[in-house]
């Protein structure tokens, strides 16, 4: 879905500073877009905030539009998974676990805190015009998976709309605390697992099957899994 860290500085892995100039640009640009607006933000300001010269910035990105597109594309990882898995014939619980897990990973590693991105989308709907549509589609595809789970008996009888809204809200709060508490990327997998497990535990008819669901989610379906990749 459409939803990186809002705090400045380079990402860390096991206490070691990671050299990530492209990521620095995305974080700097996202913060400036949210604070000043897209139109008022100049490439020079992005370069300065990212700690590089303007010529170096143009090596990574040719324009503000290109930067914005990458920010928005990074915020579609869970939606891309939901698009495929909502039409897959595997158990609904496994599919739901994978999408919710990827949603947390996406928000915790995106170039802007979800709540800041949401606020920017409200203030600049022409710039972040895909934000609400992506969010609505993610919700709808989660509802589809939940409906199938209820129909198959995997899930208790719940309102798909209410449960999808609650699960997404839990994920949003989780990413906020991840950023606010300054957690490292080494903790991503545990944080995402905890959120997905909490949501699944609340809806599964047989909670005892949760461990097998989690293991199946890690093994993956249709090219998607709940394993953390590219973040360790």
In short:
The protein has helices at residues 21-36, 43-50, 54-60, 64-74, 77-85, 92-109, 114-123, 131-152, 160-180, 188-203, 210-219, and strands spanning 12-13, 16-17.
Mean pLDDT level: 87
Low-confidence regions: 2-18
Total of DSSP H or I helical runs spanning 4+ residues = 11
Query: How far apart lie the N and C ends?
Result: 22 Å
Instruction: Give, in spatial order, the strands making up the sheet with the most strands.
Output: 1-2
What do you see in this structure?
By secondary structure, the chain is mainly α. Strands 1-2 form a two-stranded antiparallel sheet. The chain starts with 11 loop residues before the first strand and ends in a 13-residue tail after the last helix. The N terminus is likely disordered. Helix 1 crosses helix 4, helix 5 packs antiparallel against helix 6 and helix 5 packs parallel to helix 8. It has eleven helices and two strands, in the order ββααααααααααα.
What's the SSE blueprint?
Elements: E1 12-13, E2 16-17, H1 21-36, H2 43-50, H3 54-60, H4 64-74, H5 77-85, H6 92-109, H7 114-123, H8 131-152, H9 160-180, H10 188-203, H11 210-219
Antiparallel strand pairs: 1-2
Helix pairs in contact: 1-2, 1-4, 1-7, 5-6, 5-8, 6-8, 6-9, 6-10, 6-11, 8-9, 9-10
Using brief descriptors, characterize the structure shown:
232 residues, mainly alpha, 2 strands, disordered N terminus, elongated
């Amino acid at each position: 879905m459409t939803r990186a860290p809002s705090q400045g500085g380079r990402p860390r892995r096991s206490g070691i500073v990671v050299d990530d100039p492209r990521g620095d640009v995305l974080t700097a640009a996202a913060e400036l877009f949210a604070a000043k607006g897209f139109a008022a933000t100049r490439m020079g300001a992005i370069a300065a905030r990212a700690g590089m010269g303007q010529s170096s910035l143009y090596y990574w990105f040719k324009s503000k539009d290109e930067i914005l597109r990458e920010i928005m594309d990074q915020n579609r990882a869970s939606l891309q998974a939901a698009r495929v898995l909502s039409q897959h014939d595997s158990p609904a619980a496994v599919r739901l676990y994978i999408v919710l897990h990827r949603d947390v990973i996406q928000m915790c590693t995106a170039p802007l805190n979800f709540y800041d991105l949401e606020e920017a989308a409200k203030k600049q709907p022409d710039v972040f015009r895909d934000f609400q549509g992506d969010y609505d589609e993610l919700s709808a595809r989660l509802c589809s998976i939940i409906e199938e789970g209820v129909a198959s008996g995997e899930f208790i009888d719940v309102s798909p709309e209410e449960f999808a809204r609650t699960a997404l809200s839990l994920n949003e709060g989780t990413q906020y605390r991840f950023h606010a508490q300054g957690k490292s990327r080494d903790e991503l997998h545990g944080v995402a697992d905890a959120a997905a497990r909490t949501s699944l535990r609340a809806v599964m008819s047989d909670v005892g099957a949760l461990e097998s669901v989690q293991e199946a989610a890690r093994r993956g379906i249709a090219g998607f899994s709940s394993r953390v990749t590219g973040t360790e």
